[in-house]
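Annex B. Sample input.
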Amino acid sequence: MRIAVFALQGAFVEHEHMLQQLGADTFQVRQAADWNQHKDGIILPGGESTVQSKLLQELGLFEPLRQAISEGLPVFGTCAGLILLSPSHLGTMDIEVRRNAYGRQLGSFHTNASVSHVGTDIPMTFIRAPYIEKVTSPDCEVLSEVDGHIVAARQGNQLVTAFHPELDNDLRIHEFFLSIARK
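Annex B, continued. Sample output.
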């Protein structure tokens, strides 16, 4: 299993460490030449979604990424990665997103909640996080809610979380993504 990790911003190294603990091989995508390597899935980490979208365009990766996801490449987007998959950017996932929904850096918090198909007491670290206001297709499954807000969802081979599982020690979310990528 070989997973690409976009290394444009965010905690991409932490994602790589989680995947490696689960036995997956990883590589970073920083430029168009990196994209052409074999991959079984890709992770879009946190950061700032507008900047990431602009970088994807400038590097010539925006359309190849959108096409690969549309053709079934498994993708896991955390925080800004969730926003990138929404209609305002790549448009591959049927969700409406509220950016910076939990406020500025001081609005960051940690909690535990259940995630369908994954388990209970999943640690969730939210940093200036978005949430999903609603799913707009029956193909999109809500996986978790915190305080009445959708914080995790899945649509086909696409998995998104508003929180950062890579910043905690629990491997279950990454393990779930690998199970999606194996199918």
